[in-house]
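Recall from the previous lesson that a structure prediction takes nothing but the amino acid sequence as input. Here we apply that procedure to AT-rich interactive domain-containing protein 4 from Corchorus capsularis. The sequence below is the only information supplied.
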Amino acid sequence: MMFSAQGSSRNHCSLLAVLCGGKVSDSKQKQPVPDDKPRYPFPELASAGRLEVQLLNNPSIDEFRRALESSDPNIVYLQGEQDTESEEIGSLIWGDVDLSTPEALCEIFGSTLPTTVYLETPNGDKLAEALHAKGVPYVIYWKNTFSCYAACHFRQALLSVIQSSCSHTWDAFQLAHASFRLYCIRNSNVLSSNSQKQSVKPGPRLLGEAPRIDISLPEVDMQEEEDSPENLPAIKIYDDDVTMRFLVCGSPCVLDAFLLGSLEDGLNALLSIEIRGSKLHSRA
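The prediction returns the following tokens.
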């Protein structure tokens, strides 16, 4: 099951992004940001590469359902409220509609279900379980509170993978999560101001089954196998243990288990993306 499984073309992936807007305190409204003060470069959600983005801002339930039915997106991205004072991501609230309970969230989805739902809201484990039980194959969620900066890094890493490759949800998440661990967790630039009080392992999570890598046999081999009384052994693309050399670029640091583990997971995800997009022409 690829991201593009529900789309009209294998080379495109559709994303329906729903934003809540943000909470702005009175003090913030009265204090405009100086022009010379550096601003964090939050990238805009826009179509790029193979990713087609449709954006909704504080929609009504009916507006969301119409967009969901008409576009039949592969991915639905639901962003929580952004509090400009605390810089935390908040609950899912569209206008006066609170979607922070599993019942309320599941009700906005009808018979049209995307392959993936990304919940960018804190403490989303119950919401994710409810959507998965409803029939959404993959749900990305956060089990803790987190800052808009941490959310931005993971989201941009995830969308960059989708833009550039016909990747499965599982592989795209693993690669984005490896980037998140390297740049956010390792640099202690992860969560909200309450993160020190949390015992939950920081970072986004994925709910769903890991896909198998199935390699289609060449047509000639398929015919030979039908005529042969004995089945040929399963195709193996690579060995379990492979020795490779890499040049790790960056500031001088100790290559500890955390750094190497993140690199390993990211490289495994890249390899899986390449294998899933491959076709076997012949074998000997």
